[in-house]
Design brief:
163 residues; alpha+beta; five-stranded antiparallel beta sheet; 4 helices; 18% strand; extended
């Protein structure tokens, strides 16, 4: 037998070994992270919910998801243990590095538009074929008046012009 015959199998087995080794390292790191949780720690669950740990048991943890609202979760549902600064930044919107003297940037485009000239806005509107309210009222009266009139060549006996 030639070594070139077994080369694809050797490469495949080597790749599988490397993949399982890295997956095992990730699992060990996640287990270590979950075991290091303490009450008062901020976490993010695998579902994306942020909460504070209140109690740590063998397989479960008690989380405070809102002030006064507690829920029991499995330890395996913890996606990440956050440090206090990051947890407060995400949940409470607190940040220690915000400068008070920094310019305030609006979160919308209202400061980019000129709102002093309302006549320019009206002139720039495109006519979409809509009628003013007075025209709509006149049209409504015409429709109700036409509904009361009977057509002159209405067949009442069920006959039709078809042959």
């Amino acid at each position: 037998m030639d070594i070139l015959t077994f080369l694809p199998f050797i490469v495949l087995i080597g790749a599988m070994f490397l993949m399982t080794r890295s997956a095992k390292k990730k699992q060990q790191a996640a287990a270590q992270m979950r075991n290091e949780m303490q009450p008062g720690t901020g976490i993010r669950t695998i579902g994306g919910m942020y909460a504070t740990v209140k109690e740590v048991n063998d397989d479960t943890i008690l989380l405070e998801v809102a002030p006064g609202v507690h829920a029991v979760y499995a330890k395996n549902s913890v996606g990440a243990v956050l440090d206090d600064e990051e947890y407060n930044r995400i949940v409470h919107g607190e940040s220690a590095d915000l400068a008070v003297d920094a310019p305030v940037v609006p979160d919308d485009a209202s400061s980019l538009t000129d709102t002093d000239t309302d006549s320019d806005v009206d002139a720039a509107r495109i006519d979409l074929g809509k009628k003013p309210e007075a025209d709509k009222a006149d049209k409504a009266e015409d429709v109700t008046a036409a509904a009361g009139d009977e057509p002159k060549d209405k067949k009442t006996d069920g006959e039709s012009d078809a042959k």
